[in-house]
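User: Here's a structure from my thesis project, written as structure tokens. My advisor, Dr. K., wants to see whether a designed sequence matches the one we expressed. Can you design one independently, without my sequence as a hint?
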């Protein structure tokens, strides 16, 4: 097995594990307050990433660069580790887990639109066709309009997707200026996650009583989604093209749907599968520019 195939298999396993983590998180969020879950996950992710960066990898810290980009790093931290994560967990607690994953998958489309405005990167005609196709899948997926509580959750999650897309743009800007992915992720998590953790410690205290399975799901989500997963993904992009990584990431909604049936007892209707398929085809078309290049 060559290096490219190894990386693809590794990323596919990571996507599957992340999908399973989300389904288990949905299960746990029915048993505990969502904010408690959120701040414990962020705090655990901070510890894991700091241990990895400082003790295991012993990464040199470019303090001059960090200070020079302090405002942008703070914006990334707040947008991703505070606002997006809050929207992510709130949406997960209110929406079916497959619907939640479906909405998150539109991050690539929003990122493309923002990059056209903020980075002056103009999508090709094929990419615009893919965007329209992906959007058309929404009308198929939501064959039945959700109730008002789910509409609110969809709105909050959509704002979270906007924050995530902005984060993608800002990370690209800083990465192009030589700031390493692990340093960037660690500093941004500390800046954006610390306020969340402090509020959590104030509201819940230090003695939070949880079951072993709840702690397992929190640590798993912290490692796969917030900390080590980011490092693995960044490493993988050295060996595969960005469009391949995007297609692999988009497949997560399929695994979420498959895992949710036996674990949560969800029923995925035929029109939801059709909506997912249409969205994935649209997202694949949106990545073709990178492939052709």
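Assistant: Designed independently from the structure alone:
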């Amino acid at each position: 097995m060559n290096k490219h195939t190894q990386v693809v298999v590794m990323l596919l396993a990571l996507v599957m594990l992340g999908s399973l983590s989300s389904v288990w998180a949905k299960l746990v969020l029915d048993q505990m307050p969502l904010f408690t879950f959120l701040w414990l996950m962020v705090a655990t992710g901070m510890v894991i990433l700091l241990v990895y960066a400082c003790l295991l990898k012993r990464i040199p810290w470019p303090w001059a660069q960090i200070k020079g980009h302090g405002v942008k790093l703070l914006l990334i931290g707040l947008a991703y580790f505070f606002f997006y994560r809050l929207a992510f967990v709130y949406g997960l607690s209110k929406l079916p887990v497959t619907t939640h994953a479906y909405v998150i998958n539109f991050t690539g489309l929003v990122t493309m639109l923002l990059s056209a405005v903020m980075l002056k990167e103009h999508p090709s005609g094929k990419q615009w066709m893919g965007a329209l196709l992906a959007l058309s899948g929404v009308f198929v997926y939501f064959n039945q309009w959700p109730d008002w509580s789910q509409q609110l959750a969809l709105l909050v999650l959509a704002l979270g997707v906007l924050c995530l897309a902005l984060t993608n743009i800002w990370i690209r800007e800083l990465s192009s200026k030589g700031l390493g992915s692990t340093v960037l992720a660690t500093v941004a998590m500390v800046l954006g996650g610390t306020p969340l953790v402090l509020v959590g410690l104030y509201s819940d205290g230090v003695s939070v009583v949880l079951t072993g399975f709840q702690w397992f799901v929190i640590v798993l989500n912290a490692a796969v989604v917030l900390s080590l997963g980011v490092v693995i993904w960044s490493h993988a992009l050295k060996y595969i093209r960005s469009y391949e990584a995007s297609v692999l990431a988009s497949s997560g909604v399929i695994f979420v749907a498959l895992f949710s049936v036996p674990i949560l007892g969800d029923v995925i209707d035929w029109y939801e599968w059709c909506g997912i398929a249409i969205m994935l085809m649209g997202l694949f078309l949106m990545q073709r520019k990178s492939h052709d290049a």
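When you compare it with your expressed construct, this may help: DSSP finds 15 helices and no strands in the chain.
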